[in-house]
Design goal:
24% strand; single chain; Rossmann fold; 5-stranded mixed beta barrel; alpha/beta; 7 helices
């Protein structure tokens, strides 16, 4: 797949349909697609109309992008994810993030769902990423070649998660009533969840949460030129720390957290837009 070409084509559709150029991109976590109702005067674009966009088969994801405003900032919100654990290629998984960059987004606000490895970060809470460890053994940029239309894929990951913006978003969310501590995320490909032994290893390495989403999209967005602020909803404790992970319970907790999620987005957008 020529990711630059399809991202440019999809971006043109978004701008033409919405009549606006977004400056902030949002990718919603599982169960949180309804929270794009924070956008005023939204225009909805189905994935079927966007070149290069694969339809998501993940439960509770909505194959649409909404474009609207939060205060005076134009936001494009992706309401579904396609991931390698569900049969997508790494390139397909990154196309939505790359499209946001081509549409004009300077910053990506990415949200995931995770299990917690920390007793002080319990299910029902949120955590922002300061770094990650990739336990999958696959680099999402490995298929991007020099001369493929993007900057070199041989880029430093030291500043993948914008430290200054992450701190400001954490402070803004907390001041708005939703605590947003920070920590390191561990990535596994999935779709099965991690083993207790894997979690113990990740804890020794300093990880706070475990997830099988986020890596292909945040790395694609960063490679495409966006600053990245990523956070996660903690929907369960990681393997070996709490009861066995149940997807139904994950979704139930996500629904209960919609108001807090909306609060984070309303707090985050003005912060990243001012950057």
């Amino acid at each position: 797949m020529e990711t630059r070409r399809v991202a440019e084509q999809a971006a043109r559709v978004i701008i033409d349909r919405a009549g606006l150029e977004p400056t902030v991109g949002l990718i919603c976590g599982t169960g949180f697609a309804p929270c794009t109702d924070v956008l005023a005067d939204p225009v909805t674009i189905p994935f079927e109309d966007l070149p290069g966009f694969r339809l998501s088969a993940i439960p509770d994801h909505v194959n649409e992008i909404d474009v609207g405003t939060v205060e005076d900032t134009v936001v494009a919100a992706v309401k579904a994810k396609v991931l390698p654990c569900d049969g997508a290629t790494w390139e397909e998984a990154g196309v939505p993030a790359r499209t946001l960059a081509m549409a004009g987004c300077r910053t990506l606000i990415y949200s995931a769902n995770s299990g917690s490895m920390r007793e002080d970060v319990r299910p029902g809470s949120f955590l922002a990423f300061t770094d990650h460890i990739n336990f999958s053994g696959v680099n999402p940029l490995a298929t991007e070649r020099e001369g493929g239309g993007w900057d070199t894929p041989y880029l430093s990951m030291a500043e993948l998660y914008d430290a200054d913006l992450t701190r400001k978003v954490s402070e803004a969310a907390t001041a708005s009533g939703v605590p947003l501590p920070t920590g390191i995320a561990g990535f596994w490909m999935g779709p099965s969840f991690e083993t207790p032994a894997e979690i113990r290893l990740a804890q020794m390495a300093g990880c706070a949460v475990s997830s099988n989403s986020f890596l292909p999209e945040v790395m694609a967005g960063y490679h495409a030129g966006m600053g990245v602020v990523a956070f996660t909803f903690v929907s369960t404790m990681s393997a070996g720390i709490g009861p066995p992970i149940d997807l139904g319970r994950v979704l139930e907790l996500s629904y209960r957290a919609h108001d807090d999620y909306r609060t984070i987005i309303r707090a985050a957008v003005p912060v990243v837009a001012a950057n």
